[in-house]
């Protein structure tokens, strides 16, 4: 259940939900607008040849602070980490979702985005019926069931439970066309999964895809004989092959033995549609799923929203990209996004926080990725 404006105000007034500073005029019918702080983390690509997810990224990023009236210029295809002015304190029975503003999305500034109402999703309902369902219908009716998704560590494909449903403000819709004939319609900021020359999985915004980019599709639908469009696997270049051979055996194993194939982008087309968009949450027990199969023929798309867990406390780090062809000036204090709140079925047994080793608890500045902590203790 998504909280209404009245419920949000009541939760803040009672102290159950914390948003500081609290500005009642920022409350929307089912969300609260958040504003951009004046501190940013920007990448400096002269320090390393590549990003290694097993290593801290702090030395790759530099903190930049702008004055109260000074713009932050975000250049084409640039990615920065920002911060909200607001500090959020969540109770143990609410979760929240962060989305970018539609007005900024039209200029090419993307925080997160989604799929159009009529985009098909391969859906297994509680009756055991597997069929293509329009994502808008699944969200509008909050239909319980499972979707096809893959584990981002092992590339194993399986059925995973839908854990939440989201309707978003209007956005421009693009169609990604693949060599196999597969197609998927998404917004410019929605991620598809690509494979780089080193064999690493990368979430890439639709607006950054180019012809020949390899994107993830399933080899098969697990345990159910549903025909899919045959995929034409991309042929790796000599450079790619050598790079893969130099990496650990486990990474090569998952490419060969995992449940993914790789299809090539032929074109990304502006459909001319501007309409409300939708997204599913598929978290998975391991926390490393966050994707689902969508489109005509089946293409894996990412869960793209910023997710705020129960008992999180801190300022929210914003992942901001410019998909336009011109630089864009962002100003401290401007409304940059909106947060909606959903009530959980029960309070969380192990909520977010230091007790469970949560990576970003209490953050007050833009915080670089701490993904490397996932690998501590494995080796």
Structure description:
The protein has 379 residues and is mainly beta. It has two domains: 5-111 and 307-364, Deoxyuridine triphosphatase (dUTPase) (Deoxyuridine 5'-Triphosphate Nucleotidohydrolase, Chain A, Distorted Sandwich); 120-304, Beta Complex (Endonuclease - Pi-scei, Chain A, domain 1), CATH 2.170.16. It has five helices and 26 strands. The protein has helices at 5-14, 102-105, 135-140, 238-245, 249-257, and strands spanning 18-20, 27-28, 31-35, 39-43, 61-65, 72-74, 79-89, 94-100, 109-110, 115-116, 120-125, 130-134, 145-150, 157-161, 164-178, 183-186, 191-195, 201-205, 214-218, 260-281, 291-294, 299-302, 306-308, 313-322, 328-330, 335-343. The strands form seven sheets. Strands 1, 4, 5, 7, 9 and 24 form a six-stranded antiparallel β-sheet that branches. It has a five-stranded antiparallel β-sheet with strand order 2-3-26-8-23. The radius of gyration is 20 Å and the shape is globular. The N and C termini lie far apart (41 Å).
Return the average pLDDT rounded to an integer: 78
Our estimate of the beta-strand percent is 35-45%
> What's the gyration radius in Å?
20 Å
The CATH homologous superfamily of the largest domain is called Hedgehog/Intein (Hint) domain
Quaternary status: single chain
User: What's the count of strands?
Assistant: 26
Going by helix content, strand content and strand pairing, the class is mainly beta
How does the overall form come out from the CA principal axes? globular
Could you estimate the helical fraction of the residues in percent? Answer: under 10%
Are there runs of 5+ residues with pLDDT below 50, and where?
225-252
CATH topology grouping of the largest domain: Endonuclease - Pi-scei, Chain A, domain 1
Cα(first) to Cα(last) distance is 41 Å
């Amino acid at each position: 259940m998504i909280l209404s404006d009245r419920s949000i105000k009541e939760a803040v007034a009672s102290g159950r939900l914390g948003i500081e500073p609290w500005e009642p005029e920022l409350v929307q019918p089912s969300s609260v607008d958040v504003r951009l702080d004046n501190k940013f983390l920007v990448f400096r690509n002269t320090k390393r040849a590549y990003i290694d997810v097993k290593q801290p990224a702090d030395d790759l990023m530099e903190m930049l602070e702008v004055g109260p009236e000074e713009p932050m210029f975000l250049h084409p295809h640039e990615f920065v980490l920002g911060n909200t002015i607001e500090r959020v304190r969540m109770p143990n029975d609410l979760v929240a979702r962060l989305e970018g503003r539609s007005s900024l999305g039209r200029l090419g500034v993307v925080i997160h985005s989604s799929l159009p109402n009529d985009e098909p999703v391969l859906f297994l309902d509680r009756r055991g019926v597997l069929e293509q369902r329009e994502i808008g219908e699944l969200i509008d009716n909050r239909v319980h069931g499972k979707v096809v998704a893959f584990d981002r560590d092992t590339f194993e494909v399986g059925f995973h439970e839908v854990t939440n449903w989201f309707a978003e403000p209007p956005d421009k819709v693009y169609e990604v066309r693949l060599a196999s004939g597969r197609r998927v319609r998404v917004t410019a900021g929605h991620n598809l999964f690509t494979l780089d020359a080193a064999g690493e999985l990368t979430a890439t915004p639709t607006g950054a895809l180019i012809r020949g980019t390899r994107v993830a599709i399933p080899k098969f639908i697990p345990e159910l004989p549903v025909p899919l469009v045959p995929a034409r696997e991309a042929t790796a270049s000599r450079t790619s092959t050598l790079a893969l051979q130099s990496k650990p055996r486990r990474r090569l194993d998952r490419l060969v033995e995992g449940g993914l194939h790789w299809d090539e982008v032929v074109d990304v087309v502006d459909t001319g549609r501007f309409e409300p968009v939708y997204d599913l949450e598929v978290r998975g027990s391991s926390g490393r799923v966050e994707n689902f199969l969508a489109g005509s023929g089946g293409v894996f798309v990412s869960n793209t929203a910023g997710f705020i867990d129960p008992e999180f406390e801190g300022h929210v780090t914003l992942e901001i990209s410019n998909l336009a062809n011109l630089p864009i000036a962002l100003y401290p204090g401007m409304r940059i996004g909106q947060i909606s709140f959903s009530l959980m079925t029960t309070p969380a047994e192990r909520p977010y926080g230091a007790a469970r080793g949560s990576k970003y608890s209490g953050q007050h500045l833009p915080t670089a990725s701490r993904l490397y902590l996932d690998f501590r203790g494995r080796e």
